[in-house]
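Students often ask why inverse folding is considered easier than folding. One informal answer: many sequences map to the same fold, so there is more than one right answer. In these notes we will look at a single instance of the problem. The structure comes first.
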């Protein structure tokens, strides 16, 4: 095992999957969450309020690489995420660490269906998108101003093991397996990029290992976009029966997504009303990797949900 310490902030699906991957490739890993609950065998777990600079600094002390995968509920993001950024930048700089940030496509805003590359202009129109764009500009400025080395990895919508709170997560796979009604958003015949979480985690780990990648945004490996309807067909093949799908053509409460959630999500609904295509070819060429083919990723996700549901009371 490497003696270098890698610290993962956040123990949601992304942080947990990344921490597992880092352990698997031989790193010493510390996970940081508000509760400090151990979630990854082999990793040390600590508790910290990442809006508090002193706690964030203590949590990442000794790190060579810090991975920022922490997130908060939609209703809190505009207020809380900038505070987390301030604390994490200060803590990682004090540790002398490199900072790897998991990012979203929100800063681009509506593109009219144009393919998104790392050169796509940031034209966010939503509050959350503008907030993310401001954060990203600050991360790049911190790198440019020699505060600390920073690199960002952007992902499209997650799916995969552990992913419940996603448009292709808990409202899709469990219902597909049980023969219930599957949720879909917007125009399901438009191409839409979905990032497979194990590819996202491995992608962030590679960024953490390559200082030559610093100082910029990368699109993490993501399979070529297909329509959501095509993704549903792949799921149907794996579960062995056609899916019953309810399409929301506008943001409104549905199942676990209550009125308050949908009210916060409404400003991002444009992502399902136009083609949402992310190009990760720059990352793939630089690192010599390919994303997991979508049929293989869907099959593995169905298997995970099937096993997870079988263990529930």
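Output (designed amino acids):
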């Amino acid at each position: 095992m490497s003696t270098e310490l890698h610290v993962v902030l956040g123990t949601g699906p992304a942080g947990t999957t990344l921490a597992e991957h880092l352990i698997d490739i031989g790193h010493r890993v510390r996970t940081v969450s508000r509760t400090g609950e151990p979630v990854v065998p082999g990793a040390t777990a600590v508790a910290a309020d990442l809006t508090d600079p002193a706690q964030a600094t203590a949590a990442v002390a000794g790190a060579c690489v810090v991975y920022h995968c922490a997130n908060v509920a939609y209703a809190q993001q505009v207020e809380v995420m900038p505070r987390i950024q301030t604390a994490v930048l200060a803590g990682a700089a004090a540790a002398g660490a490199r900072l790897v940030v998991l990012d979203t496509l929100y800063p681009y805003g509506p593109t009219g269906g144009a393919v998104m590359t790392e050169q796509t202009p940031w034209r966010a129109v939503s509050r959350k998108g503008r907030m993310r764009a401001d954060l990203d500009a600050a991360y790049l400025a911190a790198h440019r101003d020699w505060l600390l080395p920073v690199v960002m990895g952007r992902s499209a919508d997650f799916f995969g093991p552990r992913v419940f709170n996603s448009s292709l997560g808990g409202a899709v796979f469990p219902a597909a397996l049980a023969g219930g009604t599957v949720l879909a958003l917007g125009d399901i015949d438009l191409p839409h990029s979905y990032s497979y979480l194990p590819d996202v985690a491995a992608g962030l780990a590679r960024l953490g290992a390559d200082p030559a990648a610093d100082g910029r945004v990368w699109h993490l490996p993501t399979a070529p976009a297909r329509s959501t309807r095509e993704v549903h067909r792949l799921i149907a093949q794996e579960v062995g029966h056609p899916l019953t799908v309810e399409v929301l053509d506008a943001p409104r409460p549905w199942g676990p997504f209550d009125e308050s959630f949908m009210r916060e999500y409404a400003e991002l609904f444009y992502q399902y009303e136009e083609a949402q295509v992310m190009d990760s070819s720059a990352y793939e060429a630089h690192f010599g990797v390919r994303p997991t083919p979508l049929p293989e990723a869907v099959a593995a996700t169905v298997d995970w949900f099937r096993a997870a549901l079988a263990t529930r009371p």
